[in-house]
């Protein structure tokens, strides 16, 4: 493997649930899961300390169940459990790829994984283990964007990478509007004031207050994670106004 010489020591990658379903309409596609794990393994091999937060949208989103008549809080708890399913799937695929991992859940479930303990998570990272944070914040009425931002701040990460199925932030939905243009760089303020649908506003504000840059890229593109880490590849960076 070539030396990526990333400008980061420790980062957090948020993996959207929808990425894990590949081209299927639902669930976890094993080939996609293994491909994502291989890309993550390549980054870990480069010596970076890595935290992961898994989404759950490939299995269940609280807001859509609520739209079909379920009580929102119950639906959100189901969504949080969906993120645990993805965390365990990713753990299994990463371990198969030779990466040491631990899953920590914000909702304790002793027989399945560790509970979230900040200091223990930090120790895992120092030992070179990838820590996968599951069950979001353990509280309803959030998506996994906010826990991704919170854990990035708590773990002292240098950047938050958002791996989705779109290769950056666009002026409009690129799947619907062929004239949509990708931003190379945005400030936190622009994202909030233009109401760009990148991440929840609470997540953007948390990253702004802690001066942690957000890098949005497509984790569906093979090798993109390593590429983007070195500043190459297609992506959008969100940071302070004064970012060069
Ligand atoms: N969720 C929650 N609290 C959290 C994180 C997640 O209630 O702190 C629930 C919420 O219902 C959400 C679901 O878990 O829709 C799955 O997460 P998300 O929608 O962020 O998944 P993604 O879109 O990243 O796949």
Task: Give a quick summary of the entry.
By secondary structure, the chain is α/β, with parallel strands linked by helices. 37% of the residues lie in helices and 17% in strands.
Using brief descriptors, characterize the structure shown.
244 residues; alpha/beta; nine-stranded mixed beta sheet; 9 helices; 37% helix; 17% strand; binds uridine-5'-diphosphate
Report on this model:
The protein has 244 residues and is α/β, with parallel strands linked by helices. 37% of the residues lie in helices and 17% in strands. The protein has nine helices and nine strands. The chain has helices spanning 17-20, 30-45, 62-67, 72-96, 118-126, 145-154, 188-193, 201-209, 224-229, and strands spanning 10-15, 49-54, 101-105, 114-115, 130-134, 159-164, 185-187, 214-218, 236-239. It has a nine-stranded mixed β-sheet with strand order 4-3-5-2-1-6-8-9-7. It is globular, with a radius of gyration of 17 Å. Residues 1-5 have low confidence and may be disordered. The structure holds uridine-5'-diphosphate (UDP). Uridine-5'-diphosphate binds at residues 16-18, 55-57, 61-63, 76, 79-80, 82-83, 136-137, 139-140, 142-144, 147.
Which ligands appear in the coordinates? uridine-5'-diphosphate
Proportion of β residues? 15-25%
- Tell me the strand order in the biggest sheet: 4-3-5-2-1-6-8-9-7
| Overall form | globular
Mean pLDDT: 94
Largest sheet: 9 strands, mixed
Unreliable stretches? 1-5
Report helical residue fraction: 25-40%
How far apart the termini lie comes to 30 Å
Q: What series of H and E elements makes up the topology? A: EHHEHHEEHEHEEHHEHE
Tally of helical segments: 9
Q: Measured on Cα atoms, how large is the radius of gyration?
A: 17 Å
Structural class: alpha/beta
